[in-house]
Amino acid sequence: MKQNLTTWVKSPKRAVSISRDERMVIIGERINPTGRKVLQEELRRGDFDRVRRDAVSQLEAGADILDVNAGVPGMDQPKLLVEMIRAVREATADEAVICIDTADRASLEAALNHYCGEGGKPLVNSVSAESKRMREVLPLVKDYGAAVIGLASGDGGIPKTAEQRLENASRIIEEATKLGIPVEDVVIDPVVLTLGVDWRSGKEVVRAISMIVEQFGVNITMGASNVSFGMADRPHLTAFFLAMCAVVGLSCPICNPLERETRIALQAADLVLARDEYGARWIEGFRTRTAQ
User: What is d(CA 180, CA 264) in angstroms, rounded to the nearest whole number?
Assistant: First the structure.
């Protein structure tokens, strides 16, 4: 088995290390207008108050990195993304590291220029194993010294099996290292599908994580809530899935830290996997929950 790698990302003020040898790192998912009509309307008006509140509340709930997505149709996305990142930085006093979440190359370059120019090292969400996407994204990641999430999907779309996910992850890592991007700066997302569409997909993701970690030692992320989309009792299903994936190598999920079940699952995983000395964080979490 490969040695566990450590991915370092940072804000202008604070550095965060991602490693299976340390506690779980949470990437907060809420600063995303997709499916949030109220947030979309506010962003169209240039109102960033909700962005600021979401940033602070996620950080207070335990997030270390904040995913920022500016996907509002019809808007100047490069400008909007930079404005949103600036709002998050101001609201958190640069305590939160930024995960730049965009499929638009111009938006990515604008965000990288802003954030890295201020001394940050962001996580880029994301690049897939599609040839065109790697050509667009990986040179920017290299030029700005960022870290990147590699989606284990490719030219053939979202894979069905763990073996296909491993193949796509291998391709991303190979292309990144050819450009001089350190392998530890590539975080792999095995691509989680809802169990409502494919009831076997969760098992394949768990297998894929284990295989990717075994071969490369890289860190693993995922859009955790995807697994329960359209299913009953989503919070519990997502939480159990997170805990299972932690056992095989998940290290920095993209999730909602405000969900009680998610926080409990991740704290329990850290305790069981001997990443919470004397159970201190578990006890603190219990006291906080029971006091509410």
Answer: 38
The pTM of the full predicted model, rounded to 2 decimals, is 0.97
3 lies in a domain?
no
C-alpha distances in Å from residue 209, one per residue of 18, 150, 202: 16, 13, 11
4, part of any domain: no
Q: Which two tokens stand for residue 167?
A: 């193949």
pLDDT at 292: 76
SS3 143: helix
171-215: per-residue pLDDT in tens?
999 999 999 999 999 999 999 999 999 999 999 999 999 999 999
Say if CB 177 and CB 148 are below 8 A apart.
Answer: no
Asked whether residue 2 is assigned to any structural domain, the reply reads: no
- At position 291, the amino acid (one-letter code) is A
- The token duo for 253 is 């999920």
What contacts 229, CB < 8 A, 6 or more positions away?
194, 196
DSSP for 243-280, please give it.
Answer: HHHHHHT--S-EE-TT-HHHHHHHHHHHHHTT-SGGGH
The tokens describing 165, both together, are 């996910």
Host domain of residue 209: 9-291
**CA nearest 255: which of 192, 161, 213?**
192
Residue 1 lies in a domain: no
Looking at the structure of the chain, the number of domains it has is 1
Residues in the chain: 292
Residue pair 251/242 in contact by the 8 Å Cβ criterion: no
CA 201 – CA 87 distance, rounded (Å): 37
User: The domain spanning residue 135 has which CATH number?
Assistant: 3.20.20.20
- Rounded to whole angstroms, the Cα distance separating 28 from 32 reads 10
Q: Are 152 and 165 in contact (CB under 8 A)?
A: yes
- CA dist 193 and 188 (Å) reads 15
